[in-house]
Design brief:
- The complex is a heterodimer of chains A (205) and B (275).
- Chain A is an alpha+beta fold and 205 residues long.
- Helix content of chain A is 35%, strand content 25%.
- In chain A, a hairpin with a 2-residue loop joins β3 and β4.
- The two termini of chain A are 15 Å apart.
- With 275 residues, chain B is of the alpha+beta class.
- In chain B, α3 runs parallel beside α5.
- Chain B is globular, with a radius of gyration of 24 Å.
- Classes of the chains: A alpha+beta (205), B alpha+beta (275).
- Chains A and B meet through β4, α1, α2, β7 and α4 of A and β1 of B.
- β7 of chain A pairs antiparallel with β1 of chain B, so a sheet runs across the interface.
- Chain B: It is found in: Cytoplasm; Nucleus, Nucleolus; Nucleus.
- Chain B: Keywords: Acetylation, Cytoplasm, Disease variant, Exosome, Isopeptide bond, Neurodegeneration, Nucleus, RNA-binding, rRNA processing, Ubl conjugation.
- Chain B: One of its GO terms (biological process) is U4 snRNA 3'-end processing.
Chain lengths: 205, 275
């Protein structure tokens, strides 16, 4: 029997106009998350954003090969498997980005000479895959009880470039700043969702 | 033309650090900062209030608060590192400010000094047994750490045996070491666990719940069948009853009682007691 917490959250804010860069209001797709669904890994989570779904499993702190051990902190490994085909260069670059994020957040110095492995499997891809992978990895690390100094999440945003404005670097920078601001505002929604789903899980005990 | 760009945002440490007292019993997330009671008075509404310097230094009562699992000290605040419910225990003898800890649910065990665990012997090399305790490395157990063991009188331990012992050395930098005697040299229930019976794994939170001082589950299980049971803090339980069927029933009940409410449990026990 597995402990499952199904938590759905619908976050809608006002949508900006079509072609112009996104304003402060943003609309995120429907979220759902399930924790502790796999019996073998120490922590697991499945994260759904609209139609994109990623399954994450965390093993750790576990034994590490002598060639890979680091004397004063934990060795973090991320494995990302695409839905079809063998992992390629794009997966490797995403793995590196996720690993850098996790390393900044996980307190590796508490478990030296051990390994923490995050395995991500893409179940379906309908946009913003990297953001969904980051969210699933974070929920799986929390489920496994790996000590962390903060939580992290991912929000994807797209830049629309109009013909005339591409040439002007400053307004391009402006658009980037607007994207960053919108993503930061949206990340508060994701954190609120994390809190609600974890409270629901612990409210049963 | 659209270029996707992903932004990974790290959670800031909440809007404001909350007082630990107000969060007791609630779910806390990694990254939250908690204020200890003595700091609450200093951080009044509005933060940057100037306090007049007093010439006679008021006896600042420094209360010693112990940071338990799931919490770390960062500066003069507590940083939450695991997700779970915040708990507090008042100090017994009156000194110190008590213990704060986070009650989290975990499957993976990390060795802690003084914990009693069930291990499986995996190798025998010279005078040392290697015992798998479910952590990141196997613990070492010397053959002299059994009651009445001498160099001539070696204990009868084979590869694959179950051992119930406690850790004497368990920190992040060294290989864990366990022994099967207490500080007086007596076995006190530790040592090789006998024949038959069933070993199974549960979460660490369930073990702590079952080992709590007044746990109804164990009393009810004891009334059901005569049994022998050993709890290891590493999530392993060994149980033995008269017949194999009873042993399996007990194992299933203990695994399932993590997710059952007390009413469902009483129903199942009454049904089993009838049959």
């Amino acid at each position: 029997m597995e402990e499952e917490t199904h938590t759905d959250a619908k976050i809608r804010a006002e949508n900006g106009t079509g072609s112009s860069p996104r304003g402060p209001g943003c609309s995120l797709r429907h979220f759902a998350c399930e924790q502790n669904l796999l019996s073998r890994p120490d922590g697991s989570a499945s994260f759904l954003q609209g139609d994109t779904s990623v399954l994450a499993g965390v093993y750790g702190p576990a034994e590490v090969k002598v060639s890979k051990e680091i004397f004063n902190k934990a060795t973090l490994e991320v494995i990302l498997r695409p839905k079809i085909g063998l992992p390629g260069v794009a997966e490797k670059s995403r793995e590196r980005l996720i690993r850098n994020t996790c390393e900044a957040v996980v307190l590796g110095t508490l478990h030296p000479r051990t390994s923490i492995t995050v395995v991500l499997q893409v179940v379906s891809d309908a946009g913003s895959l990297l953001a969904c992978c980051l969210n699933a990895a974070c929920m799986a690390l929390v489920d496994a009880g790996v000590p962390m100094r903060a939580l992290f999440c991912g929000v994807a945003c797209a830049l629309d470039s109009d013909g005339t404005l591409v040439l002007d670097p400053t307004s391009k920078q402006e658009k980037l700043q607007q994207c960053l601001a919108a993503a930061q505002a949206a990340s508060q929604h994701v954190f609120r969702f994390y809190r609600e789903s974890l409270q629901r899980r612990y409210s049963k005990s | 033309m659209a270029e996707p760009a992903s932004v990974a945002a790290e959670s800031l440490a909440g809007s404001r650090a909350r007082a630990a007292r107000t969060v007791l019993g609630q779910v806390v997330l990694p990254g939250e900062e908690l204020l200890l009671p003595e700091q609450e008075d200093a951080e009044g509404p509005g933060g940057a209030v100037e306090r007049p310097l007093s010439l006679n230094a008021r006896a600042c009562s420094r209360v010693r608060v112990v940071c338990g699992p799931g919490l770390r000290r960062c500066g003069d605040r507590l940083l939450v590192t695991k997700c779970g419910r915040l708990r507090h225990k008042e100090p017994g003898s009156g000194s110190g400010g008590g213990v704060y800890w986070v009650d989290s649910q975990q499957k993976r065990y990390v060795p802690v000094k003084g914990d009693h665990v069930i291990g499986i012997v995996t190798a025998k090399s010279g005078d040392i047994f290697k015992v798998d305790v479910g952590g990141s490395e196997p613990a070492s157990l010397s053959y002299l750490s059994f009651e009445g063991a001498t160099k001539r009188n070696r204990p009868n331990v084979q590869v694959g045996d179950l051992i119930y012992g406690q850790f004497v050395v368990a920190n992040k930098d060294m290989e864990p070491e366990m022994v099967c005697i207490d500080s007086c040299g007596r076995a006190n229930g530790m040592g090789v666990i006998g024949q038959d019976g069933l070993l199974f794994k549960v979460t660490l939170g369930l073990i702590r719940k079952l080992l709590a001082p007044d746990c109804e589950i164990i009393q009810e299980v004891g009334k059901l069948y005569p049994l022998e049971i050993v709890f290891g803090m590493n999530g392993r339980i060994w149980v033995k009853a008269k017949t194999i069927q009873q042993t399996l029933i007990l194992a299933n009940i203990l695994e399932a009682c993590e997710h059952m409410t007390s009413d469902q449990r009483k129903q199942i026990f009454s049904r089993l007691a009838e049959s």
